[in-house]
Each structure stands twice: as structure tokens, then as C-alpha cells.
Specification:
single chain; mainly beta; 504 residues; 31 strands; eleven-stranded mixed sheet; Hepatocyte Growth Factor; 6 helices; Celegans_DevNeuronal_Protein; ten-stranded mixed sheet
């Protein structure tokens, strides 16, 4: 295949001193229909998949080699001019772009992607909406990743392109990210992204995470510590180094000017920059060296700057489990409280088909009738009795043989279990055994969310103190540490066990 490649090249430098000075960035065309690609009135956008390349058997008979980093716009412009081009692989270290002409229908190219840490694969996708976005690419796509945050909107049985259309066209909220499960056709849209909730970003085979480049405000990088919603970010500055993994190269007379150019860059969200002092050049990147694990290059008169947000934000939520406007039926999870029943009398009978599997049938029937059933009690040998509102904690009374189930609305995705937490009223672990303690968590459900989203350790149980709004997270359970598990005379403490946590 290599002998058929037509190479457009200039001599690639072996050291930074031979980088040519660029005085004007290449021009790119706005997104729009292209006669060779998107038929029936479709519009083309680009997806960027960092860390991957398309297999060599899919390379077209052309390659572009540059003499300086930051060639994404040039590569995209060349692909735009070729009606047969379906996308390109950019190698940030070799400073090359390989152009492809493959069938991208039904996401066929995804199966032929191979890992390539120094590369990124850019693919054209056809959509039916006009976005008005002038970014070089519309979405960053991260393979086999998911996002355990509250999905503001969920669509089932749709294509990836339709999912992207929904995110780009959303007007009711800012869709910053989405996930797409290619096996179920499940599309979830989010107000948050992985930088706002880093602990919610996880490995997940079969699901891809997409970050909307058209949604974000500029990612400002200040000279020192700065704040963001829910946490603090550190600015890391590396003197004598630069990152060659750059998407744009632009002139700059000083590091301060380079910082400013990064802050106002409109081609993509700039997350790091390198100022090359000798060449008076500024390299802007949509990623950080920390994020992609790429080594920095040495140069005495250069400086590299990135922003790292390491602190996990405390989620304080006022979501009510009885707010039918907040959760769809698919968005509710179940919480189980053993050995209690409700002393209120406004209740209905949930029919179960048989005594075998009664819990599953009662949960299914409760979900089916939606807001009519917000909670139910299952009694030994009897039908399940449902309630149209969650039962106040003070109205739950001891009843051996009874189990109380309540719908809870959580912004974190569960694990497919029938219920997500087991709740024991009036029990606790000592606070000094907690791995993490969050203050000012306004609801019990907010504490449950924090446990599900915890990324530093496996949160297996929680204790919520209502009077203090205190949420304690533990890596242990009453089974692994029975000696420290205790009943308490405090009337405002609940212990809850995470059913989604793996076995210790």
C-alpha cells in the first residue's frame, strides 16, 4: 500500500530551532453540505477520536506532511476539498495526516480503529441539523467510556448520528456531553461533562462518550490557582518544555499573549498551550499532557502550561424522590428498607402474578403506574401495598416481615439491580472509619449520589446524618466489619448499603 501513496511534504525538522515561523493560520470552510458526502440535505461535521488511527488498509492514496506542529485546520481543509475524503488520521509526532475514503455508514469504521497514542482519527459524520458552530470538530469521542451523571434527556433505539443531532439541536439546556451505547441504541444527554464531574467518567465497554465542542465556554488558564464550579483547579507550568501534540500554531510575542490566544481560541476548547520563545510561536492543544500521557519535549526557551482539576466536587442536591417532573419512570431507582412498614392508610394494592418473584413484579407494577406509586410495602404472604407519595421517615414503624420500597431519583446511573441501596434506620459506622465525609449535603439521595459517583475508592456503604446534613462514605459494610457496626440512639441517622458495589 505504501508505494501507492502520493506524499505532499516539506522537510520535517529534527529539532525545534528549525520550525518555520507561521504568520497566518490556514483558512477553513464553515460546515455545510458537500456533494460528495452528505446527500438529502445533510450537513457534515467532524468527530475526533484521540489515541486511535484507522488501519493502514484504509489509507487513501495521499498523505500530507508538515514542518511544524498544529496542522489540524490544514488537514481538515484538505479533506474538505476532496469529495472522496471520509476523514483523516493525524499523527502529532510525525506531523502527518493520512486521508481516508471508507464507508462510515452505521459507524463501520469504528471496528477498524487501532490504538495509536500519538494520533487522532477525525471522521466526517452527516447530520440533519444546522448548528451554526464553527469549531474544527464538533465532538471529542472517547471509546468505551461512560458518564455516571444525571442524564437530562434519554433516547432509546436511535442512531449515533441522531444522538449527535439531539445534542447539537437541544435548546432547553446546554448539552455539554452525551453517551451512546451502540448495542442498545441508547443515547443520553448531559448538562455536565467529564471535567465538571471527573469522578463520574468511567470505563464502559460498548458505550462511547462524546464531548460537545460547540457547547463549552472558553477554558481559561490563569497564571495561578483558579476556581470552577464545585472545586479548585491547579495551573501547572513546565519551564523548558513544550507539548508537540498541538492542534493550532499561531504567532505570539510573549507567554502572556499565548495564554490570551488560548483563552479566546474559537476553533476548539484550548486546554493547554506551549510558548516557543525562540520562534515566538504559540502551540494550542485541545488536550493536556496529563490527560493523554504524552511526554513533553525539551527546549530551554519554551514553556508549557495546562490546567488540572483534581479535586472532586461535592454534589449538593435538592432533588426530591417524589418530584415526578424531575425523573422519568426510567430515571427512578429503588431503595429498600427492611423490617419497617408505613403507619399511613392511603394505599392501593399492587397485584403480583405469584408468590415467586413477588418483589420483582411489585417493582415492575409500581414503575408501570408511574406517579400513582411512589413507594410500596411488601408483607410476608400478602400483596404489595402502594402509596402515591414517599412515606416520611417519622411515619415508618418497626414491622418484622415487612419491607418498605421507595422510588428515589438519582443523577447517577445505577447498575441494573432491582434496588440500588439497602437502608437500615438508626444504624451507623463510627465517623472515624469513614473514607470521605461530605458536609452540607441537603438530602439522603444526594448522599447516595456521592457514593455512586465516588472514584477514588469503592464506596460500599454510607451513613447520612439528617440534622447535620452530613454524608459519610465507607469502603466497608456491616458484613465485612460487623464489630464496628452499631445501633445508635440518635433518631436522625440512616445507614445505607450500595448494592452496585462489587464484592470485597
Amino acid at each position: 500500500m505504501a508505494e501507492n501513496i502520493i506524499e505532499f511534504t516539506t522537510t520535517r525538522p529534527t529539532d525545534i530551532t528549525s520550525f518555520p515561523i507561521i504568520t497566518k493560520p490556514p483558512q477553513i470552510q464553515p460546515w455545510g453540505p458537500h456533494s460528495g458526502r452528505c446527500s438529502k440535505g445533510g450537513f457534515q461535521i467532524y468527530e475526533k477520536t484521540p489515541g486511535f488511527a484507522l488501519g493502514v488498509e484504509d489509507i487513501r492514496a495521499s498523505m500530507f506532511t508538515a514542518a511544524v506542529p498544529g496542522i489540524t485546520a490544514e488537514c481538515r481543509a484538505r479533506c474538505d476539498m476532496d469529495p472522496a475524503c471520509s476523514g483523516f488520521t493525524q499523527d502529532y509526532l510525525k506531523l502527518t495526516c493520512l486521508f481516508h475514503a471508507v464507508d462510515v455508514a452505521d459507524d463501520a469504521a469504528r471496528q477498524r480503529l487501532i490504538r495509536a497514542p500519538s494520533s487522532a482519527y477525525f471522521e466526517i459524520t452527516c447530520i440533519k441539523v444546522v448548528t451554526g458552530c464553527d469549531r474544527l470538530w464538533a465532538f471529542d469521542r472517547l471509546l468505551d467510556k461512560s458518564f455516571l451523571a444525571f442524564a437530562t434527556e434519554t433516547h432509546l433505539g436511535i442512531s449515533k448520528a441522531a444522538c449527535e443531532e439531539s445534542c447539537l439541536a437541544e435548546k432547553r439546556f446546554v448539552c455539554r456531553a452525551m453517551t451512546y451505547n451502540r448495542f442498545r441504541g441508547e443515547c443520553r444527554l448531559f448538562k455536565d461533562d467529564r471535567f465538571m464531574l471527573p469522578q463520574a467518567f468511567i470505563e464502559s465497554a460498548g458505550t462511547d462518550y462524546f464531548e460537545n465542542q460547540c457547547a463549552g465556554t472558553p477554558f481559561f488558564i490563569a497564571p495561578s490557582k483558579n476556581t470552577r464550579q464545585g472545586g479548585t483547579c491547579d495551573v501547572v507550568r513546565r519551564q523548558g518544555m513544550f507539548l508537540q501534540y498541538a492542534d493550532t500554531n499561531t504567532p505570539a510575542t510573549s507567554e502572556r499573549e499565548c495564554e490570551h490566544v488560548c483563552s479566546i481560541n474559537s476553533n476548539f476548547t484550548c486546554r493547554s498551550y506551549s510558548f516557543l520563545g525562540d520562534q515566538k510561536q504559540c502551540l494550542l492543544s485541545a488536550v493536556t499532557a496529563t490527560e493523554i500521557g504524552m511526554p513533553l519535549m525539551n527546549d530551554n526557551n519554551s514553556v508549557y502550561v495546562e490546567r488540572i482539576c483534581e479535586e472532586q466536587p461535592v454534589i449538593t442536591t435538592t432533588i426530591s424522590p417524589t418530584d415526578g417532573q424531575t425523573c422519568t419512570a426510567a430515571g427512578f431507582s429503588m431503595e429498600r428498607t427492611i423490617g419497617v412498614t408505613a403507619k399511613i392508610h392511603h394505599k392501593n394494592v399492587l397485584n403480583a402474578n405469584s408468590l415467586i418473584g413477588r418483589t420483582k413484579h411489585c417493582i415492575r407494577n409500581c414503575n408501570r403506574v408511574k406517579d400513582v406509586c411512589k413507594a410500596f410495602v411488601q408483607k410476608l404472604g400478602m400483596s404489595c401495598l402502594s402509596f402515591n407519595s414517599a412515606v416520611d421517615r417519622r411515619d415508618l414503624v418497626a414491622s418484622p416481615g415487612s419491607i418498605y420500597f421507595e422510588k428515589v431519583c438519582l443523577r447517577a446511573i445505577g447498575c441494573g439491580k432491582l434496588w440500588i441501596f439497602d437502608r437500615l434506620i438508626g444504624f451507623e459506622f463510627p465517623s472515624n472509619e469513614a473514607k470521605r465525609i461530605h458536609l452540607e449535603v441537603s438530602t439522603r439521595q444526594g448522599c447516595q449520589e456521592l457514593c455512586l459517583l465516588e472514584g477514588a475508592f469503592v464506596c460500599r456503604s454510607i451513613v447520612y446524618v439528617y440534622s447535620k446534613k452530613e454524608c459519610r462514605l465507607y469502603p466497608i459494610t456491616r458484613y465485612t466489619n460487623p464489630s464496628s457496626f452499631r445501633a445508635t440512639d440518635k433518631k436522625n441517622v440512616d445507614y445505607m448499603e450500595n448494592q452496585c458495589a462489587p464484592e470485597p
